[in-house]
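User: Hello, beginner here. Can you help me understand these amino acid letters and fold codes? It all follows right here:
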Amino acid sequence: MDILSIKIKIGDREYPMKVKPADEERVRKASKSINEKLKSYKDQFGIDDKQDLMAMVAFDCLVEKMTTEENVTEFDVVSDEKISQMENLITKALS
């Protein structure tokens, strides 16, 4: 299995990483997103402390992840209900 050695920059630090080629773009996008959020919080709140900024970004990312998971679960429930309704209509039409 091929593994790439890359460096990503988060804040003012570089981090060496080993990733699968298929994951490289996702990892780089994540790094970019984190840096954008760091800059946004720094500009918006005037916070310079890197630890505080990283904590705020981590919290924000977790809230986004939880919201997405809730939306996916809700979508699954609605989809299952619609499929069940269609199955019932098909069954009635075939009877």
In short: The mean pLDDT is 93. The longest helix spans residues 50-94. The helical segments are 21-45, 50-94. The chain is about 75% helix and 15% strand.
